[in-house]
Amino acid sequence: MKMFIKCSLATAILAASVTTAQAETELVVVSWGGAYTKSQQKAYSVPFMEANKGIKIINDDSSAEAASKLRAQAEAGKVTWDVVDVLPDIAIALCDEGLAVEINPEKDLAKGADGSSAKDDFGDALISPCFIPEIVYSTTIGYRTDKVGDTPPSTIADVFDLKKYPGKRALNKNPTGNLEWALIADGVAIKDVYKELATEAGVKRAFKKLDTIKKDVVWWTKGAQPGQLLADGEVVMASAYNGRLFSAIVENKQPVGMMWDAQLFELDGYIIPKGAPHMKEAMAYVKFATDTKRQADQAKYISYGPARKSSAALVGKHAELGIDMAPHMPTNPANAKNVLYKDINFWADHKDELAEKFEAWLAKG
Amino acid sequence: MSQSSSTLKTADGSLQMADGSSLKANLERSLRRRKRNALLLVAPLFLFILITFLVPIFDMLIRSVDNKITAEILPTTIPLLANWDAKSGKLPDESVFKAFINDAQIANKAKIINRLGKRLNYEKSGTSSLFRKTGRKLKKLDPEKLTSTYKDALIKIDKKWANIAIWQLIQRESGRYTNSHFLSAVDTENSPDGIKWKDEDSQIYLNLFKRTLWLSFLITFLTVLLGYPIAYLLASLKTKTSNLLMILVLLPFWTSLLVRTSAWIALLQKEGVINDVLVTIGLISEDGRLAMIHNQTGTIIAMTHILLPFMILPLFSVMKTINPSYVRAARSMGATSFTAFRRVYFPNTVAGIGAGGILVFILSIGYYITPALVGGTQGTLISNFIAYHISESLNWGLAAALGTLLLLLVLALYILYDKVVGIDNMKLG
Amino acid sequence: MALPLHATTDERIWHYLFLAICTLIFLFLIIPILIVIPLSFNVQPYFTFTPEMLSFDPKGYSTRWYTAFFNDTNWQKAVKNSLIIAIFSTIISTFLGTLAALGLSQKDFPFKTTIMGILISPMVVPLIISAAGMFFFYARINLLGTHLGVILAHAALSTPFVVITVTATLTGFDHSLTRAASSLGSSPTNTFFKITVPLITPGVISGALFAFITSFDEVIVVLFVGSVHQRTIPWAMFSGIREEISPTILAVATLLICFSIILLFLVELLRRRNERLRGLSPN
Asked: Do A353 and B110 touch (CB under 8 A)?
């Protein structure tokens, strides 16, 4: 009995310590994890917390499942997220479904440091009333330099060439990107990819091409995985976000190289879920994180380009390594010779269908 | 029962208490009281399990047939569409189109129209983008200023609306309840001509059930194969030694599932410990490293390891009760040690194999974490798909239908377990 | 397992073969657990032994992953969450489970098998089904993403272990002891605390330990019912394995193994004490 009382006392004290710890506002910021979240933490969250005592940023690495989890939260009637980092097609879909807050760029976002209005400064990047643009990035192919012989892969067709480059490849467990690449590797011109993919025959063709490497694919679900799979030697090639490959190659000095052919180029940004528990703080956070200085600061930590025009001129050197960041950006002319611009409206409309087909295709084995 | 009482015998022979009441009635009363007390002791837990566990599960299972969304989003269209003859070969009449545009515009404003598109897309691929597109274009459409019929206006937005199949689909899925999720769960679907198999490309779940059952069976078999010698050894050793060796079984049993799974990743990956050892001793070449995770091999090895103690412990407790003199008797009567084992010892352990086997089988058909981490696409089980439909595709109806089938399977095995071992004989550690 | 003196050559071969097979199986059981410990001291961020480690060069070893663990606020929060959730759910499940076991062990309890079957069902129902059901239902009653929700869910999952262990203690329970106490004039309450409680305590505590480890090790339900505020150690490990496998996970694993060794010995001690109390010899 004494032991029981002691136990209860101990737990009561524990419980008390939890409640006091939660007295400050915990702002849940959902993002992609790994090197990317770290760059956001350093460039946005740490200075934000310094400027706003009493707010603590909690990172949740669930962006890969953001749409579904948010739908689930909304359906269940309890939103637990404050700010969510998502891709533009997801932002459009969530906005259509009324799950994201619409913002007014002039009022809710900071003016450019050069005095330009937020609307002009972001320009075309404002693709949806709910979407708060943050960076441009691309999905590219990385490979193990020690496992590909003397001629490293240089075109997207090489990813599908098992004879020339035997071994496992890691691809995103998601139809987006893979279907386009399959078509390009099958001979479709980059500008016709989405026209082809809008037809049933085109979708079949893409899956048929993917079939040729299916047995040798390890599927990843989180942005940090491909770098890990390459580092562990689990695969010889992997599709990965260009910033993650930068961090593997330049920061961690792994035996990894990358190619830019048919890079899948797109935006990334924030939405604020409707019903976010700390709406006011969330609005303050996105305004802070997307101002000219913060946008330029992020490029010091990861090779993603700022979405603001006024930040572009401020992109300088890596914070710790002191190297120039410009050559590592997807927009750098040397890297942007053959670019696949992701058609966000196509994906906003067709994601459900193609994801279902993709999942069935995967399960067929 | 605390009062010590004496009994008296009355004239008619029945027993009576000292205070004159009948002993029989008294005993019955005390029995009733004991039963009531026992029930009162069990009641709190029963209620707790009911509310925190059973009701939630039942609530979820209901979702497998729930279909109120169509009538919610198209409240005026559905009654009109009900009168349409789906087999007439003609499109529904103008009133249906008018009601549909009306309903859709209201739903559009509430931003819920895409939910219906998503729901119907489970039945017919392409419906989701059709609804999204229609929703977007309907925003700009003012019914007051319409120059054409409603029918033409909608078909102008997308010519798929001129396709009878979409209206047949809406009509079929307009009820409060639906069987379509259960049909999907067994790779079939409704069609105007009744239930039929899905396209070859979308038949996945029966295969998945087959794979889950096959892998569970294989894992169960492996645990018997590996567990039997160990249990036999432990049961025949002196208590002191067997207690010591038992630690080797119990330590994995008490170690976190995630610890064991991450250990297997460290062991099995391409540049992991096992491959390194094999390369070093020259059994395989540097390029010939084996792929043991992200496939079925990973799932089988890791799950066999994790579930092995669940086989060893019940086997051990059964073997412990077998009297060694049986085997000795058989031997003394001239049986070889193999015959003695096969004819005398083994039959006595079958109950233990049954107990451990059903337990391992039940646990493995519901496994989720380990296959998700080491299974790749071919080593994943039915649970992984249920999770996928709940948290990624959001096809909750299908998730619930798959869950119901899985649950029925487990319950059948649970009842079997009760028949073989008896639930009240379940032991731990 | 000694070999009889008159064993034939075949039997001898078979005997040693059998011992060899058993040794291999024991290695299969224990190596994955032991291997984690040295790997967690790897100075490199890899999951395998480096040449320096194999030559026992101290330079190949370091405690950097332990430092990383102890300095990471996310891990600290995970430890705290795990402890809070496990402790509270253990209290609830031990209390309710012990009461129920006392009731169930009464002779002629009506519908015993059925009720027992229902009470044990949380252990048998696949976790993904429990998790999904709780996810939808707890959302409705506003328990999603709260500590209370996760605690109640874990309590439900761990009561079967308490019911089973305490019932097992009570099957060997000599009811004549309580009758003797009553006949000597002891009140029911007194009998309960003086006779029943000391006898079932070992069973209750080992049930509580089982309940504790069930909650402490559980990940599926907390992933569904909890939010990031309830992130526990297994949750952090699960997402760690899926993302960046750093040996920090192995450091955590090593600490958890030490923890399970302690629990294992506690349960073993209690089991022996229980057998001694009930006058059963361990054989």
From this structure: no
